[in-house]
Amino acid sequence: MANLHEYRPGGDPRTLRDALGCFATGVTVVTCRDGEDVPHGLTVNSFTSVSLDPPLLLVCLAKPTTSAKPLVEAEHFAINVLQTEQRPASITFATRGNDRFGETQWEEGEHGAPLLTGSLAMFECDRHAVHDGGDHWILIGEVKRARFEKGPDPLLYYQGRYRRLHFD
Ligand SMILES: Cc1cc2nc3c(=O)[nH]c(=O)nc-3n(C[C@H](O)[C@H](O)[C@H](O)COP(=O)(O)O)c2cc1C
């Protein structure tokens, strides 16, 4: 039991983050364009499928990020599911002070949201709803187009580090 850690409200937020980090995820880059046509995007692993009929999915966006406001205000956004070779893009879109869309290859989706070239899957969405989720916004999108490639391995994230599949 020496390795068992415990968090309770008021305790060390790092312990809560570490507990949440026990849930292995994929990695996405969520993108949109604002009213002046400027592209925005950030790395997100809080992506979850919500509903098949209607087709809904969600991401949780930290309110202090610069991308959160344009994303919750945009009528359309896109979710790019990354493959292992896109680890540099994941780092770029999670780091402040660089030219994210200058350093990454992308093309425009049907409603203008940037689609990163080589992504494993791409979901182009209309904004369906935005809910308050504490220090995050819960952005729910309705899928208007989904495309994916069979073959490449997904980029994974677990306990604060990038991982890849190794189980057959
Ligand atoms: C693997 C990974 C997953 C992340 N997931 C989220 C997430 O789900 N929601 C979020 O708001 N930020 C997430 N982040 C952090 C943002 O990508 C990071 O804060 C980014 O710099 C925000 O950019 P901005 O302030 O320019 O919008 C994640 C970062 C990494 C590396």
UniProtKB/TrEMBL annotation:
SMART domains: Flavin_Reduct (SM00903). Residues 20-164 form the Flavin reductase like domain. Keywords: Oxidoreductase. It comes from the Bacteria. This is Flavin reductase family protein. GO terms for molecular function: FMN binding; riboflavin reductase (NADPH) activity. Pfam families: Flavin_Reduct. It comes from Sphingomicrobium sediminis.
